[in-house]
Design a protein that fits this description.
The chain is an alpha+beta fold. Helix content is 32%, strand content 45%. β4 and β5 form a beta hairpin.
């Protein structure tokens, strides 16, 4: 494993820890502090569907996540894959979505530049009710 790949994996794990904390508590500042100024993210559904640009848009998105879910727990990490610039986490989560029980399989991808996240993509794996 190259030094650059090791750094990417280290930064990715740090970002995922902050991401997990944000999902569980609604406190996103540590994760948002890791974003580059030109941060982009892609989300597959809803009002943030498609490509979104900028830290302020990310702040709005994660505020939206808090409103919809009000706390999500990661129940297992299925796989972590990395390259020199990207780390992908596949995991299962559960909680409540708009007051109804929620379980899902998710993959999130972090693009890393230096010690920051410059890109994020999320992929949903089920109907939101199964795991």
């Amino acid at each position: 494993m190259t030094e650059e790949t090791q750094n990417t994996l280290k930064v990715g794990h740090n970002a995922f820890d902050h991401f997990t904390h944000g999902l569980a508590t609604g406190e996103w500042d540590l994760f948002l502090d890791m974003l580059t100024d030109d941060f982009t993210f892609w989300f597959p559904v809803g009002s943030f569907h498609g490509l979104n640009v900028g830290k302020e848009q990310a702040r709005e998105f994660f505020h939206y996540v808090n409103e919809v879910f009000g706390g999500i727990s990661i129940t297992s990490i299925e796989r972590v894959t990395s390259s020199e610039t990207t780390v992908v986490f596949e995991f299962r989560d559960e909680g409540h979505m708009r007051g109804e029980p929620y379980k899902n399989r998710i993959a999130v991808s972090f693009d890393i530049r230096g010690d920051k996240i410059c890109g994020y993509r999320e992929y949903l794996g089920s109907d939101g009710k199964s795991n």
